[in-house]
Design brief:
Order of helices and strands: EEEEEEEEEEEEH
Number of strands: 12
Radius of gyration: 15 Å
Largest sheet: 5 strands, antiparallel
Strand content: 35-45%
Bound molecules: thymidine-5'-diphosphate
Distance between the termini: 11 Å
Strand order of the largest sheet: 1-9-6-11-4
Helix content: under 10%
CATH architecture: Sandwich
Shape: globular
CATH topology: Jelly Rolls
Length: 136
């Protein structure tokens, strides 16, 4: 089972304003099929709270900050994202929530798959049994 991890992105510091990037297959370990973003999150709201059967994601706090909370079925880990030159790689089959959004924060997420509702696992008990099957 692959591990989630923070990936530091290239950054070009410039007095005119800084620039960072990532591109297909470089910087991140999958081909990008889809991009979406989460914004205008009211204080205290939580997004996500599901796992994906097959898709991989890479999450960047383009603006502001938020926490990505991961659960592998046994333990929970929390990662705070607050710099636009760090991204968080989330492999498939990890339960993930995004919470503690700061005012005006912007979460950019790229996925290895086009949108497919059947790729979602929205029930935590079902997630745990799929994880257990996968580990066998
Ligand atoms: P969802 O991923 O369920 O958001 P969250 O887990 O944070 O509640 O997405 C919310 C809605 O948006 C859902 O009806 C599906 C739709 N959606 C798309 O159509 N395309 C996408 O790429 C995403 C991420 C969501």
């Amino acid at each position: 089972m692959e591990k989630a991890r923070i990936i530091e992105l290239p950054k070009f510091l410039d007095p005119r304003g800084n620039l960072s990037f990532f591109e297909n297959s470089n910087q991140i370990p999958f081909d990008i099929k889809r991009t979406y973003w989460i914004y205008d999150v009211p204080g205290g709201e939580i997004r996500g709270s599901h796992a994906f059967k097959k898709s991989y994601e890479f999450i960047v706090a383009l603006s502001g900050s938020f926490d990505v909370v991961l659960n592998d079925g046994e333990k929970e880990m929390k990662y705070s994202l607050n710099r636009s030159y760090y991204g968080f790689y989330v492999p498939k089959l990890l339960w993930r929530s995004i919470e503690n959004f700061s005012t005006n924060s912007l979460a950019l997420i790229v996925s290895s798959m086009s949108f497919d509702a059947s790729d979602y696992i929205r029930d935590f008990d079902e997630f745990k049994s799929i994880r257990n099957e996968f580990k066998k």
